[in-house]
Design goal:
heterodimer; A: alpha/beta; Rossmann fold; 5-stranded mixed sheet; B: about 375 residues; 6-stranded parallel sheet; 13 helices
C-alpha cells in the first residue's frame, strides 16, 4: 500500500485506478481522458491499464457524455464522466436534470443512475473565460442529484470511491486551484469516506467557519491567524453540498453561537443562503450574532486580470470572523 | 424515390509547393488581393507568436494559437463586407484583425481583460466563443434577424472540427437549411480537438457532408490554399447575400501548435505527422507562388517582416501599458441599470479595495 504523499488530483487518479481495478463495471469517459490522460492529468494511465473499451475519449459533446452515461448506468455500469471544466457543464444540464436526477423516481426504482460526473471548478488559475465557474448551487438545487466537493487529497480519494459506488448520480466537483496545493499520504486501501457528512478540520469554541472547495485553504490560513490572536475558530469543510449534513454545523454553532459561511460562488441564492437559513431556523436561540456570508459577488467571474478582486483571501475571512465576534 | 446525393467537391488550386494544379481564377491576374492575403497572414503569425511569447513570460494568459490555419480566417476576414457579421471561434485572430479588432485587443482579451471585446470598431461581430459550437446558434439568430429585416448581408460562423460533433452545430445547420438563412459555416478542420484526432471525432469521410442532411450545399477546400478558400467563401457569401441560403465549407488545415499554451501536444501527436504538416502550411505556399510570379522578393519580405514586428511591438506596449479596469466595471455591465443589491456589493468591493495595499494595482 502506497504511503506516498500525493496531491488532490493525483488522489482522484488513484481512486479511479482503484475502482477500475476492483470493479469491472466502472468505466471512464470524457474529452481527452484517454490518450492525453485528462487536461489536468486526472485520468493518466487509465487507458493504458484498462483499455479503450473502459476508458473512452468521446467526441466533443457534453450533452452526449451525460446522455450515454445515463444509458450505461441504467444497465448497471458505473460511468465516471469527466467534464473538462465546470464552465462547459451546462450543455449536460438537460440530461442531468431531466434524466439522471429523475430516473429512479420516474421508474419507481426499476431503472437507476449510478453515475458520477466529475468537473474541476473555481477560479484563481489565470484561465480564460468560462474556465473559472463555481455553480454548485445550480446542481444542488435539483432533487435527485448529490453534489460532492472534496478539498484535500484524502477526502478526494475517499469521497470519489464513495461517489462511484453510490447508487445515485453524484456530481463530483474538484477545486482545481488546490489540485496541487498540498500533498498528503493517501493509502490506496479502497476505503470510502461518507457522502453527506461534513468534516470538522479544526475544533474551536469561539466561532464556526463553514466552507468547502478551494476556500478551505484560505479558511485554514485564517484559522491560524485567528489562533495567534487567541481566537479559537472551528473550521468545517462541508464536503458534501447535497445531501447537506446540517447536524454537524448545528452542533458547532450551538456551541460557538457565531457562524461565518465562506464560499467562492456568487452570494445570492447560493449554498451559503441555504446553510444560513437552516442555522437561523434551527439554532436561533444559540446565535449571538447574525450568520454572515462571505462569498463571491453576484457578478460573472471577472477575466483573470481582475479575478483577485473577486476571490477571497484569508484576510477577508479573518475580518469577517472578527466582525462577527465583535457583534453585540 | 429520392436518391440522396452524397458528393462533396474538393477545391484546390495551389499544391503544397505553391504550384498551380488547375487554371487559376481570373481575379488572380491582379496580384493585389493575394498580396493582401500574404501580408495579413504574415502579420497574423507575428501577432500569434508574440502572444505565445507573452504567455511564456508571464505577461499574458492561456492562448490558443492559430499557427498553420491562418489562411482560412485571413480570407474570410477580407471577403466579409462591412455589414456582414462574423461569429468567430477562438482561433480567428487573422479574420478578427481585418474586422476591427486591434492587435492589442487580442492581447487584452487573452490577457484576461474584458475590454478586448469592447472596441466599437468591432461593430456587430461576436466576441470569441470559448464554449464549443454554441456560436452556431447565435449565427443562425443573426441570420434570422437579417431575413426578417430583408437585409442582403451574410453571417459567417467559424468553428473547429470538434464543434461539428455538438448538437448546437447540427441544430444550426438544420435551421439554416429549413429557413434558407444567409449563412456560411466554416469548419476549420485542423485535425485535432485537443488530443482527439479527426478520425475519432466523426465516422463520416468528410465533415462538410453534415450539411447534406440539412439540405445545404457543402464543399471541402484546401484550407492552406488562399485561392481555393477565396473561391469557395466568396461564392458562398454571395449565395447567402442574394437569398439563396447557407453553405457549409470544410477547410482542411492543420493545427501546427499545441491546443493552447496550457497544452503539450507531444503527449498525443506523432512528431512525423507534425513534420509533414509543416510542408503544407499556407504562408510558405503563397510566398512561393508570389515569388515565382515576380510579385515578391527578398527586399519586400524583409520590409514586411520589419513592419509587422514594429506594429506588433507597438501593440504589445499599448497592451502592457493599459491600466487595470476600475473595480466598478466588474459590476456595471451586468444590467442596463445596476440593481440596488448589486450596487451595495460594488460599494463593498470598492471599500475592500481601499483596505488593500495600493501597490496591488500595477499593470499586468
Amino acid at each position: 500500500m502506497s504511503e506516498q504523499r500525493i496531491t488532490l488530483v493525483e488522489a482522484v487518479n488513484q481512486a479511479l485506478h482503484y475502482s477500475m481495478t476492483h470493479d469491472d463495471n466502472v468505466v471512464v469517459l470524457g474529452e481527452d481522458v484517454g490518450t492525453n490522460g485528462g487536461v489536468f492529468r486526472a485520468t493518466v494511465d487509465l487507458k493504458e491499464k484498462f483499455g479503450l473499451k473502459r476508458v473512452m475519449d468521446t467526441p466533443l459533446a457534453e450533452t452526449l457524455i451525460a446522455g450515454i452515461s445515463i444509458g450505461m448506468a441504467s444497465q448497471g455500469l458505473k460511468p465516471v464522466a469527466e467534464i473538462q471544466f465546470m464552465g462547459f457543464i451546462f450543455a449536460a444540464y438537460e440530461q442531468m436534470i431531466s434524466h439522471a436526477a429523475r430516473m429512479r423516481n420516474r421508474t419507481r426504482g426499476r431503472l437507476t443512475c449510478p453515475m458520477v460526473m466529475r468537473a474541476p471548478f473555481g477560479g484563481g488559475i489565470h484561465a480564460p473565460e468560462h474556465h473559472s465557474e463555481s455553480t454548485e448551487a445550480l446542481l444542488a438545487h435539483i432533487p435527485g442529484l448529490k453534489v460532492v466537493m472534496p478539498s484535500s487529497p484524502r477526502r478526494a480519494y475517499g469521497l470519489l470511491l464513495a461517489a462511484i459506488n453510490d447508487p445515485d448520480p453524484v456530481i463530483f466537483l474538484e477545486p482545481k486551484r488546490i489540485y496541487r496545493a498540498v500533498k498528503q499520504p493517501v493509502p490506496d486501501d479502497g476505503k470510502e469516506l461518507p457522502i453527506g457528512t461534513c468534516f470538522t478540520l479544526k475544533q474551536g469554541d469561539d466561532i464556526t467557519l463553514v466552507t468547502w472547495g478551494a476556500c478551505v485553504k484560505e479558511t485554514l490560513e485564517a484559522w491560524q491567524q485567528l489562533k495567534q490572536e487567541g481566537i479559537n475558530a472551528e473550521v468545517i469543510d462541508v464536503a458534501t453540498i447535497k445531501p447537506l449534513d446540517m447536524d454537524t454545523i448545528l452542533a458547532s454553532v450551538s456551541r460557538t453561537g457565531r457562524c461565518v459561511i465562506i464560499h467562492e460562488a456568487a452570494r445570492s441564492f447560493g449554498v451559503g443562503a441555504e446553510i444560513a437559513a437552516e442555522v437561523s431556523s434551527q439554532a436561533f436561540l444559540s446565535l449571538e450574532a447574525p450568520v454572515r456570508r462571505l462569498t463571491g459577488y453576484d457578478i460573472t467571474m471577472p477575466y483573470y486580470r481582475m479575478e483577485h478582486h473577486y476571490l477571497l483571501s484569508s484576510k477577508d475571512i479573518v475580518q469577517a470572523a472578527k466582525e462577527t465576534l465583535e457583534y453585540q | 424515390m429520392i436518391t440522396p446525393r452524397v458528393e462533396v467537391p474538393f477545391l484546390q488550386y495551389l499544391d503544397e509547393k505553391g504550384a498551380p494544379i488547375a487554371p487559376l481564377p481570373d481575379w488572380t491576374a491582379n496580384p493585389d488581393i493575394l498580396l493582401h492575403y500574404y501580408r495579413q497572414m504574415v502579420l497574423a503569425r507575428v501577432v500569434d507568436q508574440k502572444a505565445i511569447a507573452l504567455q511564456r513570460t508571464g505577461q499574458m494568459g492561456t492562448y490558443p494559437s492559430c499557427m498553420g490555419q491562418e489562411a482560412v480566417s485571413t480570407v474570410f476576414g477580407h471577403l466579409l463586407q462591412h455589414d456582414d457579421v462574423l461569429v468567430p471561434y477562438y482561433r480567428d485572430v487573422p479574420g478578427q484583425l481585418q474586422r476591427g479588432m486591434e492587435i492589442e485587443d487580442i492581447y487584452l482579451y487573452w490577457g484576461g481583460d474584458e475590454r478586448g471585446s469592447a472596441r466599437p470598431s468591432q461593430r456587430k461581430d461576436f466576441p470569441n466563443c470559448v464554449p464549443i459550437a454554441t456560436q452556431a446558434g447565435h449565427a443562425a439568430g443573426i441570420a434570422t434577424a437579417m431575413r426578417i429585416r430583408n437585409q442582403h448581408n451574410a453571417v459567417l460562423c467559424s468553428c473547429g472540427d470538434g464543434a461539428t460533433s455538438k448538437g448546437d452545430f447540427l441544430e444550426a445547420l438544420n435551421l439554416a437549411g429549413v429557413w434558407q438563412l444567409p449563412m456560411v459555416f466554416i469548419i476549420n478542420n485542423n485535425q485535432w480537438a485537443i488530443s482527439v484526432p479527426r478520425k475519432l471525432q466523426c465516422g463520416a469521410p468528410t465533415l462538410a457532408q453534415k450539411g447534406i442532411a440539412a439540405g445545404l450545399p457543402c464543399v471541402q477546400v484546401d484550407g492552406n490554399d488562399v485561392i481555393a478558400l477565396h473561391e469557395a467563401i466568396d461564392q458562398a457569401l454571395q449565395h447567402a447575400r442574394c437569398g439563396k441560403g447557407a453553405t457549409v465549407i470544410e477547410a482542411i488545415t492543420y493545427r501546427l501548435s499545441d491546443h493552447t499554451t496550457a497544452d503539450d501536444a507531444t503527449r498525443y501527436r506523432p512528431s512525423e505527422e507534425l513534420k509533414q504538416a509543416w510542408l503544407k502550411e499556407p504562408i510558405k505556399r503563397l510566398q512561393t507562388w508570389l515569388h515565382q510570379n515576380d510579385h515578391w522578393d527578398e527586399g519586400k519580405e524583409q520590409q514586411l517582416q520589419e513592419e509587422a514586428s514594429a506594429k506588433v511591438q507597438k501593440a504589445v506596449e499599448n497592451y502592457l501599458n493599459t491600466p487595470h479596469q476600475p473595480i466598478s466595471e466588474l459590476f456595471d455591465y451586468h444590467y442596463a441599470e445596476i440593481p440596488p443589491g448589486l450596487e451595495s456589493q460594488k460599494e463593498e468591493a470598492l471599500s475592500r479595495m481601499t483596505g488593500q495595499a495600493a501597490g496591488q494595482e500595477s499593470s499586468i
